[in-house]
Amino acid sequence: MLEKKKDVSMPSAKIAVFKNREIRRTLNNNEWWFSVVDVAGALTDSIDPGAYWRKLKERLKEEGSEVVTICHGLKLPAPDGKLRETDCANTEGIFRIIQSIPSPKAEPFKRWLAKVGYERVQEIENPELAIKRTRATYRIKGYSDEWIEKRIRGIEVRKNLTDEWKKRGVKGEDEYSILTSEISKAAFGLTPEEYKKHKGLDKPNENLRDHMTDLELIFNMLGEAATTEIAQKRDVVGFEPNKKAANDGGTVAGNARKDLEKKSGRKVVSAVNYKELPEKRVRNLLQ
Predict the structure, then answer these.
(1) 3-class SS at 178?
(2) Lowest mean pLDDT: which of 64-73, 140-149, 166-175, 189-198?
(3) Is 137 a domain residue?
(4) Is 37 contained in some domain?
(5) How far apart, in whole angstroms, are the C-alpha atoms of residue 227 and residue 173?
(6) Which among 115, 124, 223, 258 could disulfide-bond with 250, CB atoms 3.0 to 4.6 Å apart, if both were Cys?
(7) In a domain, 2, yes or no
(8) Strand order across the beta sheet in which 31-35 lies
(9) What is the structure's pLDDT at 131?
(10) Side-chain half-sphere CA neighbours of 266 within 13 A
(11) Cα–Cα distance measured from residue 262 to residue 239, given in angstroms and rounded to the nearest whole number
């Protein structure tokens, strides 16, 4: 039976790529934890990496290996878009699991894994490196500097909010998700899932905020910043009081959005996404 590790911070799910194979990972206790199934798939090219891992896990258990005990169930995006508990291991654990998987890709994967892990260590020691890497990544994807600065600021605002929720007794990914939906519904009239459908985003790894326009990012920030301020001023504790604060914070942004729409004659909520054309190109076309 895998040990279920209690999260002490809100995981931040990301996708890493090794030789065109996606490796799901999540931040937990300020370090990367990787999907063991995805690693097995990348190393073996198995058509059913889940089955491969289950068989390997059983063999390791029979051998009395401690490798299985270093895996923990953490929530990662599944193909259906929902967060599901998945066997994960940190960098050290993945190194040990690799030893049990015969593959010519093992050595290149170890080098890749060491690089990914080291980058995270650097970012913890110097947070400015994380911001620089984020900016560089978005530039490579074709985003304009104007958009990138708003996105970076939005990330900081979001972190402030989740840190506040954590201090105020909000527990786990599910409650974070409900509160986020509360803000979004009040600010834009759409939950995040409805918003993604509106923008034609149908893949689990498509981040809604990465497809927001400048104004959408600004009003999203306003809703989250207002929620943080309200939670602090009311000194709320627990899920329900934080839910009310989230609705009120989102309403602040929603009222401002409606006022702008009334005076400008243009809707803020947009169906624009950057799947086919990069943001910078779309920006130029709309100017």
Answers:
(1) helix
(2) 64-73
(3) no
(4) yes
(5) 18
(6) 223
(7) no
(8) 13-18, 21-28, 31-35, 83-90, 72-77
(9) 83
(10) 6
(11) 34
